[in-house]
Design a protein that fits this description.
Elements: H1 20-31, H2 41-44, H3 64-92, H4 94-118, H5 121-150, H6 155-167, H7 169-183, H8 192-213, H9 244-247, H10 251-272, H11 274-281, H12 284-287, H13 295-323, H14 325-349, H15 352-381, H16 386-393, H17 395-417, H18 427-445
Helix pairs in contact: 1-5, 1-6, 1-7, 1-8, 3-5, 3-16, 3-17, 4-5, 4-8, 5-6, 5-16, 6-13, 6-15, 7-8, 7-13, 10-15, 10-17, 10-18, 11-13, 13-14, 13-15, 14-15, 14-18, 15-16
Length: about 475
């Protein structure tokens, strides 16, 4: 039996469950770098011209739309691999899964570095998009599923602890990537190739640390002194388990699929182009010479969004333990729709502070949606197959990863082509995002407890004393 096999990672008596969050964070802070990927977009579009400050690239340079495909493909494969390998993750355990995630995600950086050197966009997409995306999917769901099993008494807090790391990945990745590109700017790739190699090596070490620290609870383990509450008639928290194939057939699964898809679509497109968007909406032409948002300031904006993305995952998921998952999503959709509707007005006013504040709140709820959905699934379907069910639901993320950036980039390009100034090219997209959130509000309103015919034969195990 190998060291990566599940039986080798079962926690012994006296092992503290509070060692699981650091293991999860080591992985999620690494793979969360994908949220800071936009700092590479401008340099990637100027590799042949060699001038990142140029208004237009040289003939043969990639366009922003083409470079944006890397982010979309990565998140598509995150969701697709989560759905495809969800059962495998549950069967093999978190250690083997997290090692596989580390090798794929970090190996993707090395392949992408070669693609940058050869100026081969397909190779960069294969590295950071396909290989990196599969690594993202495996690394994303495994710690979450494990934490839910360790913290049945506080599932929202548990998922928030793990997933806030994913949201905060850009807080490290964005300034690190910018600094490394500046340090190695003379490597012939504007520093991008060297940065990919270094970041791949650093993240590999952190992810392997998390993989070998992680443990799973022994069968039947529960926190000492904790007793599951019996399911109330019509209650939203079930004491029964629904297996993954049955859950896939319930209306609740597809309503939650729509909830996640719409919440993610409304945020991911903006997040993927945050650096470029704030530079275009608040350029020197808008604010006056010397007052526009610089590339360094835009990287700071991406980092700030990352802070709120990360903090929102912990704050909102913990809040959902107190007020419920359904009311939490009602807040996301109602407040989010209002803010998206107001964003164009903030831009027209030239109010950078209101623009930044609005997007910080939006990103907190975007992150909160990711952190709250596993606990929502646990409430609806129990803990038996929650990792596999979560994996399938992340197909909504895959779809949103295509739709969101396509909306933002597509409408931007069409608006600019028709003569609309770059600073005003995002207004239509913001109104569409607001409308999507209104639809999401309706989908969440329809969620009801899962019917008895979908329950599995086994209920949540009776509690017995265990070690904290």
């Amino acid at each position: 039996m190998g060291i990566l096999d599940r039986p080798q990672s079962v926690a012994g008596r006296g092992w503290s469950r509070w060692l699981v969050p650091p293991a999860a964070l080591a992985v999620h802070l690494s793979i969360g770098q994908i949220y800071g990927y936009s700092v590479f977009n401008k340099p990637l579009t100027r590799l042949l011209s060699g001038d990142v400050s140029a208004e237009t690239g040289a003939p043969g340079d990639w366009t922003l739309f083409q470079v944006g495909l890397i982010f979309s493909v990565a998140l598509f494969f995150l969701g697709a691999s989560s759905a495809l390998f969800g059962k495998w993750v549950e069967r093999e355990g978190p250690r083997k899964t997290m090692v596989a995630s580390a090798l794929l995600f970090c190996g993707g950086f090395f392949v992408a570095a070669l693609g940058v050197k050869l100026h081969s966009l397909p190779l960069v997409i294969f590295g950071n998009g396909v290989l990196g995306g599969v690594g993202l999917g495996l690394g994303y769901i495994s710690p979450v599923s494990t934490l839910i099993k360790w913290f049945p008494d506080r599932p929202g807090l548990a998922t928030g602890m793990a997933i806030m790391g994913f949201g905060g990945g850009a807080l490290i990745g964005s300034p690190l990537g910018t600094a490394l590109m500046g340090r190695f700017a003379g490597d012939g790739t504007l520093g991008v190739g060297s940065t990919f190699l270094i970041m791949g090596a650093v993240y590999l070490l952190f992810m392997l640390f998390g993989a070998f620290l992680i443990r799973v609870p022994a069968d039947g383990w529960t926190p000492p002194g904790w007793t599951p509450k019996p399911q109330a008639a019509g209650g939203m928290i079930s004491s029964h388990n629904v297996l993954v194939d049955q859950a896939f057939r319930t209306p609740q699964f597809w309503l939650l699929f729509a909830v996640l898809f719409l919440n993610v679509t409304a945020g991911i497109g903006v997040l993927g182009q945050a650096s470029v968007m704030i530079q275009e909406m608040f350029s020197d032409r808008v604010l006056g010479a010397g007052n526009g948002v610089t590339a360094a300031a835009a990287a700071g904006f991406v980092g700030l969004l990352s802070i709120f993305n990360m903090a929102g995952r912990f704050f909102w998921s913990s809040t959902s333990d107190r007020i419920g998952r359904k009311p939490t999503y009602m807040i996301f959709f109602a407040l989010g729709a209002a803010l998206y509707f107001l964003i164009p007005m903030f831009g027209n006013m030239g109010s950078l502070s209101l623009f930044v504040a609005g997007f910080c709140v939006i990103m907190s709820m975007y992150g909160g949606g990711f952190a709250t959905i596993p606990a929502y699934l646990r409430d609806m379907f129990g803990t038996a197959n929650v990792g596999a069910i979560h994996g399938r639901l992340l197909l909504a993320w895959s779809a949103a990863a295509i739709v969101g950036p396509s909306l933002v980039n597509g409408f931007r390009d069409r608006q600019i082509a028709s003569g609309v100034p770059a600073a005003q090219a995002y207004s239509t997209t913001m109104y569409i995002m607001a409308a999507l959130l209104v639809v999401g509000f309706g989908a969440n309103l329809l969620v009801r407890p899962v019917a008895q015919r979908y329950w599995a034969d086994t209920r949540t195990p009776d509690p017995h004393p265990g070690d904290d």
